[in-house]
Write a structure and sequence with these properties.
The chain has about 170 residues and is of the alpha+beta class. It has helices at about 5-10, 20-25, 105-115, 120-155, 155-165, and strands at about 30-35, 40, 50-55, 55-65, 65-75, 80, 95, 100-105. The strands form 2 sheets. Strands 1-8-3-6 form a 4-stranded antiparallel sheet. The chain has a 4-stranded antiparallel sheet with strand order 2-7-4-5, with no helix packed on it.
Length: about 170
């Protein structure tokens, strides 16, 4: 699928006009990523975001010997966008789940867009802000659920036994 067709489907670019999408497309770099290849590692410096034009990418974190898959992303999905606006290390690892084709937008290109095309950049930043707010809301809902489960485990002996029985091997 052509980048322009994919860009139209990406929520991050939902406020961009066709001309702005075309301008953005010229800033993207195409990459092929083989299955099981790490695109970036948790804790490393990031300087670009990624857009999947075909394939699948797994976003995960590792704690001790456990791997937690946070997301499985497919065509028209994006990831790594925080690297465009912060210098903090990557918060997760991204790995190609199958052979994939991705496009990258570097932080340097994004900063040039900020200077040369402020309306395009403002629209992208608005979309990023909305996406991050949605993620915070979802995280809050998950934390509330975990809090209620933990409280039930502590407060209710039957629930604690059931939980321990079903989770301890």
């Amino acid at each position: 699928m052509a980048p322009q067709d994919v860009l139209k489907k990406v929520v991050l670019f939902k406020y961009l006009s066709p001309a702005e999408l075309e301008s953005l497309e010229s800033k993207l770099e195409k990459r092929k990523v083989a299955k099981d290849t790490a695109i970036f590692q948790e804790g490393t410096a990031g300087n670009e975001m990624y857009l999947i034009t075909s394939g699948e990418v797994e976003i995960s974190i590792k704690r001790n010997d456990s791997k937690l898959v946070l997301a499985e992303l497919g065509e028209s999905s994006f990831f790594g966008e925080m690297a465009l606006i912060t210098d903090k290390p990557r918060t997760a690892t991204a790995t190609a789940a199958i052979d994939s084709e991705i496009y990258t937008l570097s932080k340097e290109e994004f900063q040039r867009l900020l200077m040369k095309e402020p309306q395009l950049s403002a629209r992208m930043l608005l979309a990023i802000s909305e996406i991050l707010c949605d993620r915070i809301q979802s995280t809050n809902e998950n934390l509330e659920t975990y809090f209620l489960i933990n409280r039930a485990i502590v407060d209710n002996e039957q629930f604690r036994r059931l939980y321990i029985h079903s989770h301890v091997k």
